[in-house]
Structure formats: structure tokens, C-alpha cells
Known about the structure:
Radius of gyration: 18 Å
Structural class: alpha+beta
Number of domains: 2
Oligomer: single chain
CATH topology of the largest domain: Fumarylacetoacetate hydrolase, domain 2
Distance between the termini: 35 Å
Order of helices and strands: EEEHHEEEHHHEEEEEEEHEHEEHEEEE
Bound molecules: manganese (II) ion
CATH class of the largest domain: Alpha Beta
Strand content: 25-35%
Amino acid sequence: MKLCRFNDNRLGLVEGDHLLDVTSALDALPAYRYPLPTNDPLIANLDMLRPRILEAAKTAKKVPLAGVTLLSPVANAGKIVAAPVNYQAHYDEAEVDPGIRFGKDIVKIQTIGLFLKATSSIQGASHGVVLNHADRRNDHEIELVAIIGKSARNVSVESALDYVAGYCIGLDMTVRGVEERSMRKSIDTYSVMGPWMVTADEMGDPHDLDLVLTVNGEPRQKNNTGNLLVKVRELISWASTYYTLQPGDLFMTGTPDGVGPVVPGDVIDARIDRIGSMQVKVRAA
Ligand code: MN
């Protein structure tokens, strides 16, 4: 199933060019008191909610997708785990482009490991990207995002995908420069998540998906998740040997070649097989 969050925190079941408003299913979520859980309650309770969502859909209001404000499909991610330079073609372009490298060595992901982005950078597709440090180069990076569905610690590569609730498209927006990735990539709105999540049962194997990104219709990025250097299941297994993964944690699995700058007024179109596409506007601060 395709689930979106829209307008004022409503829940939608996406079908074609419209959604069914199944917000009433959220009434089944537990009420929380301080201290709040360090996970995303919707994702953590997805198995329990699934029949309620389908039940609510039977009598749900049909709403055209074109008219709604799409929010991040995950409201309360505990962390964003991100993979640096995880496609060989992006490694190759980063090595030769001083505007990407900034004098640094491009270190292989197997050596440098993963990094974290601030969850405050998460934004939905409709809000758009608000450029920060607009005098510097701000790049788009399309990435497949895996959404963790249950607590995972020291999980094997073979079982890692069992811990995935679903997938969405991510834009790992980046201001280029010499600073740490976690700083340059954690700017407000620099982690666009959307347009909705597709549950893992509907996605199947995430390792044969085309990713395509255009800016104002001009082709920029095109590759396939089959070319990931460290596969999704390996990323999850590896990360889980460092920190416990929680429902709603987001994995940005890395961007392929073709990264490039955006400026205010640009419209990014990002699409991934079996998920769909999202249009994201770039604005000045
Ligand atoms: Mn990235």
C-alpha cells in the first residue's frame, strides 16, 4: 500500500491520481504521555493499523492528489542514517569535480562509514527546499530511502530487509564545501521525503529500481539501485552493529552520478520505480 501524510497531518491511502482519506484509522494509535517514544508511532504500529486503514478506505472520502499538501511520510523519525558516495559513477564524478571535492579525498564508503543527518532537516514534497547559503553551490541528490519498521540491533545481511516497513524517495540536498557532511546536509528542508511511502510488501526487492531526476525538465540523474556499492540490506545490517534502529528511522542509501546545483525558482522532479514521482520547488530563504 501507498501511504501519504497530507494537509494538517491527515493520513491518505494513495490510489492512482487520488487518495482515500483514512485519517480515522489513526484513532487506534496509543495516547502518549511524557516521555515520548523515540520512534515514529505510525510506523511502529503499521501492522496493527493496516486492517483499520483498509476498513476506513471502504467509506473514505476520495481526494485528488493534485490538490493536497504532501508532508513527509514519516513524521517522527528518530534518526536519518545516510550513505556517502554509494555509487561508483558518483565516486568517479566526485573525484574529478573540484566543486564536489573541495580539496578533500573521496574516501570509499567501506572505509569512511555512514553519517547522520539532523531530523529537523526533514520536509515533505509540497513544502519545497529553502536554499540556505545561496551564494554557495547547493546540489540535488536523489536517493532511495528505506524506512525502518521495527527495532533492529546486530541484524544479519540476510534478514535486514525484514526490518524495513517501506520506501520513499529522498532528496539529500547538500551545500558543497569543506565542512562535515552532517552540517552541510542538515539544513532545514535539506532532507525531502516523499511523495509517500510504499510498504515493503508492495515494493519487493529494492535493488532493481531506476532513479531519475530532472531540473526544470532537464535530465540530471539517472541510474539504478542495482548499482549501489553497499546494498540496502548491507547498510541496515552494518548500521545496526553501531546503533539500535527504531521504527521510523530513515536510510538515505546514496545518490548516483549527475548531481548538480539548483537555484531559486527551479523545480526538481524526482522519480523512482514502483514509488512514483514528486515535484519539489526550490525557493530563496
Ligand atoms: Mn547523499
